[in-house]
């Protein structure tokens, strides 16, 4: 079985569960099985200590180490999961500088006795004083595990969002550099992986040429940006311009993914979500698996898994073979990935126990420590199902119920098996045995509660009334709502009424008055003619009044209607070259146009990054919203 | 057909209130002996077992076994509409889609009626064996609640140590440690304050305080609480309800250090 280490910036530890193939099972165990990984390094878990849940800490067969931010909540965060069937670290630390303390201790990792520390901590003078070491490690960006074979550093290096964090980013990168070089100087092998937030070269990002042209940079300048310069100085084969920096004379790490795919273009691990850049593979490679020379030959494969969704990054892995050459001899890898004596020649000598948990393990957090499932302490019995009548709509009752007999736990041995069995039996048989009592009891209850049905009938009657009342209320409400929604319609009848009014006046009031008297007379009996007469007068007067009002207010009802519809109606969106509706966006970039909205093609960015002609990706359509009059 | 009427809604309200933070969805299993509920919490550390016996209701009728799959948060919302002294009636058909709840005010003719939609819940049933516990402590529920809330300020877990001298609750935490010792005594003036201990052998077990604090939400139901312990068996915390009905909580002890 090859041994795989996978690094993945998950952008929220539960985030992948929203996507296939993780969505179905939603467990970390099944996720790791799908990844076929033995060690999973996650970045940006974005979780607070208090929100850690059983399912993410107590993953059966897996141990986990977290580094979570001390102050900023639900930000950053690194986790390393290790499968203890194949590996078990001998030391574990949080933070890159060693200034943090193990749980329940006030001794810093770097101050622990030499045999308990991983070592390689930055010495005074190795780091600039720009950023305090405690501050560097306060953001939950690094977990370090040590195996007999090598030191595994899982890191989430700060991103370049804006200039305010440039100093922090630089200090963090320096700390990584110093720690790796110190560890190598101690004679240890290092495997550094994670989201470094650095693009190594122009081969590792889409649209590099255009970017350089826009910024007016040369390739040399591009590769000499501090972050990029660090990475190119520490990896073998990195392009370094000019003199190497002092302390960084030698490359230390192999860029495994690049080593296995030296010329592959478009090998990207991160795509901007906002630009929907993933379908067109307009991305960058900023997640790395790096290792020192001593273990480089152990690796048989390394690749990106761009097809796995769940985050704005994709997983990146490196795989080691079963046997590796160590100190000149062929050794089984498992012997070197576990404490001495646990494996010999790849055969397990000793079972993994909770005693092998390191103090930093999340499983030892008080709320998860020494947990025992109550399920193991009781027998399982078949659920008490409702009467097995076939007319029940529950699908579960139709399925044949199979129950595996579970042997009683040894600690229940003082209780003879038979009692528990008989108990379950009696439990099962209660429905049957109580048949006779059940038959009699309903009669009893019904006789003693002769009032009950009547009462309930009254209640239901009332309920019906209530129901009606609410119904009518609802309908009236919805009627009002309907009136609201057809504000446009409001103008139609008015316009029509105005028209009929005009007609009426043209035809003379006599017709109207006669029809009105005809309507009124049956109700009002003998005195109808007199009343009718006055009625006619008043109504016609009212008619003329409303007419004149209407004429004053609404000069042109059709024009009014149109002006309303331009305000209320759905705006017509321009079409792009694909003949599809454009998307409306707002300029976020500071500058003269900041805040202006515009239309552009809604398709994902193409591989070239820019606007493409006659391809399935984003076309060149661009229209300022203010220039768009709403008519194609 | 289920029809179960409780003279006062208060007890049912309190029961649901006490378990709703532990269990989200569960089946109420109704048969002619009463209404029973058994559910584990998400992490499978604690188990709730409730039995409202038929005699707690007046009247009670249940012709067939009915499983009512209820979301307890939703049920709590409906029960909030009931006054404590309202008469509460639970009703359901034989293969129900809804649970019907009727609250009748005793003071006036106000009758409110709610239908709660039911769910199909696939639930594991555990057979709880009758256990002879090595130690049984019966004490004031308010006192037990106070002990748990006091100690959770110190630590995540508590060790309960029952010996012939009495019962000791102790907690070691980051900021220090604390313990509470109770001796067996009989309070003649206020019998609810008595501490009774039945002991066949001394026991000391460690439990998560978070769960015990949670269980103590039921202390409003009963002035007395029974705490039963045995090695290698879950802790039982029992609150008596009216009649011989009960609300029981089981909690798996923490795995001992010696293992």
From TrEMBL, chain A:
Q: Which Pfam families match?
A: Exo_endo_phos (PF03372)
Residues where Mg(2+) binds? 9, 44, 195, 197, 312-313
| Marked site (Transition state stabilizer) residue numbers | 197
Biased composition (Basic and acidic residues) is annotated at: 546-559
Q: Which cofactor does it need?
A: Mg(2+); Mn(2+)
InterPro entries assigned: AP_endonuc_1, AP_endonuclease_F1_BS, Endo/exonu/phosph_ase_sf, Endo/exonuclease/phosphatase, Znf_GRF
Polar residues composition bias: residue spans: 417-428, 507-545
Please cite one Gene Ontology biological process associated with this protein: base-excision repair
What ranges does the record give for the region Disordered, renumbered to this chain? Answer: 380-559
Spell out the residues of the site Important for catalytic activity: 287
Active-site residue numbers: 156, 195, 313
Protein name per the record: DNA-(apurinic or apyrimidinic site) endonuclease 2
From TrEMBL, chain B:
Q: Which InterPro entries match?
A: DNA_clamp_sf, Pr_cel_nuc_antig, Pr_cel_nuc_antig_C, Pr_cel_nuc_antig_CS, Pr_cel_nuc_antig_N
Q: Which UniProt keywords apply?
A: DNA replication, DNA-binding, Nucleus
Function of the molecule: This protein is an auxiliary protein of DNA polymerase delta and is involved in the control of eukaryotic DNA replication by increasing the polymerase's processivity during elongation of the leading strand.
Which NCBIfam families does the record cross-reference, listed alphabetically?
A: pcna (TIGR00590)
This chain's protein is named DNA sliding clamp PCNA
- Mention one GO biological process in which this protein takes part, according to its record: leading strand elongation
Q: Which residues form the Proliferating cell nuclear antigen PCNA C-terminal domain?
A: 127-254
A molecular function (GO) held by this record is: DNA polymerase processivity factor activity
Q: Which family does it belong to?
A: Belongs to the PCNA family.
